[in-house]
Amino acid sequence: MLAAPAFDIRFGLDRRVTLPGRFPLASGQSLAALDIAYETYGTLAADGGNAILICHALTMDQYVAGRNPRTGKPGWWPRLVGAGQPIDPARHFIICANVLGGCSGSSGPGSIDPATGARYAMAFPVITIRDMVNAQARLLDHLGVGVLQAVVGGSMGGMQALDWAVAHPDRVRSVVAIATAARHSAQNIAFHEVGRQAIMADPAWAGGAYGDVPPAAGLAVARMAAHITYLSEAGLTEKFGRRLQDREALGFGFDAEFQVESYLRHQGLSFVERFDANSYLYITRAMDYFDLAAPHDGVLARAFAGTKTRFALVSFTSDWLYPTAESRRIVRALNAAGAAVSFVELESPFGHDAFLLEAPEMCRVVDGFLRAGA
Amino acid sequence: MLAAPAFDIRFGLDRRVTLPGRFPLASGQSLAALDIAYETYGTLAADGGNAILICHALTMDQYVAGRNPRTGKPGWWPRLVGAGQPIDPARHFIICANVLGGCSGSSGPGSIDPATGARYAMAFPVITIRDMVNAQARLLDHLGVGVLQAVVGGSMGGMQALDWAVAHPDRVRSVVAIATAARHSAQNIAFHEVGRQAIMADPAWAGGAYGDVPPAAGLAVARMAAHITYLSEAGLTEKFGRRLQDREALGFGFDAEFQVESYLRHQGLSFVERFDANSYLYITRAMDYFDLAAPHDGVLARAFAGTKTRFALVSFTSDWLYPTAESRRIVRALNAAGAAVSFVELESPFGHDAFLLEAPEMCRVVDGFLRAGA
């Protein structure tokens, strides 16, 4: 009779752990304890060498390859993670955790503050990408994972992947950073600030102290503004153009007459059902704070000095949120630091969202990179 | 003793006229009467041949070269219009009117509905760029101006200028259309829809029936989102980068810590003091409806068929709101229609706003074009 596996290989276990002991934050504050909600798929190899950490983007969650029990939706990265995909539970031990500050079970503004017995709301300390990474490192300790074969992420997930190589260089053999940047630009910050102001302008936000009635209108507007930045002008034109919604002629009113209006409103409304407004504030703030070069007088190469990690960077031609120029900047810095780095810019009309969509070239790049370093 | 001049040549006369008779609109509705607030500078020549109409952009007004009596600010296009400038009251008779739907004195949602004695608010009919142009034509009739030497405008002003040549081809000898487009793209519509939803999400909007307490928070968010589209990523980086506001280090809070946040918040707040939320809804809607090719099965050239008007188009390299590609599309259509057209794309880091800023090349282009056709 076989021994029970150390980790269940079924998808979607909806795991949750409270890691005791104070968790220090970049701000100087700390959390009394750390909740982490996560999923694992596959089995950790006897030598521990097949662990891959997936880092999720701003509005995603730990359900990278399993059904989200709350929304009922399938995993958010099926092209890259799953049976027969580049990251495969048959070969890899895959970990994906809800980020610190998130709203899918990890410690965040919606968590209960043990000091008061009430939700933290805006009393939750401001967090950084580094704090998210350190929380993931704590989870790996708990799971008995020492060195990661790879950290893989797109968008904010790519920021975490890059930061892993900086914060814990001895625990990361390779990094895959897709459609991302090593810092938030002024325009990135500006769009996030619009979203935050939209949330905070909603009286239902109530300084963050809302209960069962969230600031839905404000959060929907925030999502609408952000969603435009995830698409490309060409992609929007191709998908919607100036086509009208359920009508033959202009209605001379303020309904959603154009398809693109209807689509955006839907994006805003459906987001409210699955995301917490305060989490949105905290996570966007963490992204705005992200600047790997800042502790090194703006010289990004110094952040990676002495690194032995291999890097793969992928950007998309129509991504104007984290454009190719930002990936090239990282590549130059890694080259200057003497790191092993491969980079490819992929053609896509889908803007920033391309990394989540059908992207067979991206999958081939990631597959080849992971196999070469396995 | 000299006769009194037909029109006073002093700047900033803050004129206002109510033109009687129903004013028909593109929607099929009509207004019982038409109020137009306007400014004129210079003197109409005996042959009537020196009249230039300036059309203003979304949030501008009739005070193109004179002090705005409400804000105390100087005219908004001093580089192009004024003594010694390409459009000069010493040589030209200059007219600039607040657009229909505006909030600087022309008929709009803030006007009194004669049928009820109360403000129109959202009972004001939805208007189009064509309606704005036709209102200006009525004003020219009133002023005794037959044929315009030129219609000049940037952004939404450029849309009006182009539409003038389509709607009233015999009254326009030349058109100068700067940083503009012949249609609103899906992305343009999307950004406007975010702004409208931000306004409508503000409980103070009250279905448009607000009184002295406008939906300031919603309008400010709308302005913040729009303002990002007026600048360029490179311009924002150059102007603000990741520099902090009044502090040495990250504050780990939700204040405006980055200069770009502080700047954006200021843009939002100051806009509320000078612009009406309902006007913002109506004017953005008019822009979204704009598509000169729509009545011609999408063939823009047909809109200009047989035109004898001369055209000058100017775009700016970093303008991503109405990018050069849109100007080129217009140029191709004008070429196909056999029109006389000159086009130049100017280098600028200032994004869409470049047309309002120091742009000596733009002024030289306009000056040369106007003198050649005088």
Textual characterization of the structure:
The structure is a homodimer of 374-residue chains. Chain A is an alpha/beta fold. Chain A folds into two domains: 15-184 and 293-373, Rossmann fold; 188-285, Rna Polymerase Sigma Factor, Chain: A. In chain A, 33% of the residues lie in helices and 14% in strands. Chain A is built from ten helices and ten strands. In chain A, the strands form two sheets. The first copy, chain A, has an eight-stranded mixed sheet with strand order 1-4-6-5-7-8-9-10, sandwiched between helices. Chain A has a two-stranded antiparallel sheet with strand order 2-3. The model of chain A is unreliable at 1-12 (pLDDT under 50). At the A-B interface, α3, α4, α5, α6 and α7 of A face α3, α4, α5, α6 and α7 of B.
Gist of the model:
The structure is a homodimer of 374-residue chains. With 374 residues, the first copy, chain A, is α/β, with parallel strands linked by helices.
- Provide the domain count of chain A: 2
> What is the molecular shape of chain A?
globular
Strand content of chain A: 5-15%
* SS-based class of chain A: alpha/beta
Straight-line N-to-C gap of chain A? 31 Å
What secondary-structure arrangement, pairings included, does this model have?
Two copies of one chain form a homodimer.
Chain A: E1 15-19, E2 23-24, E3 30-31, E4 34-41, E5 51-55, E6 93-97, H1 129-143, E7 150-154, H2 156-167, E8 174-178, H3 186-201, H4 216-230, H5 233-239, H6 259-274, H7 277-289, H8 300-303, E9 310-316, H9 324-336, E10 340-346, H10 360-373
Features:
homodimer, about 375 residues, alpha/beta, Rossmann fold, Rna Polymerase Sigma Factor, Chain: A, two-stranded antiparallel sheet, 10 helices, 10 strands, disordered N terminus
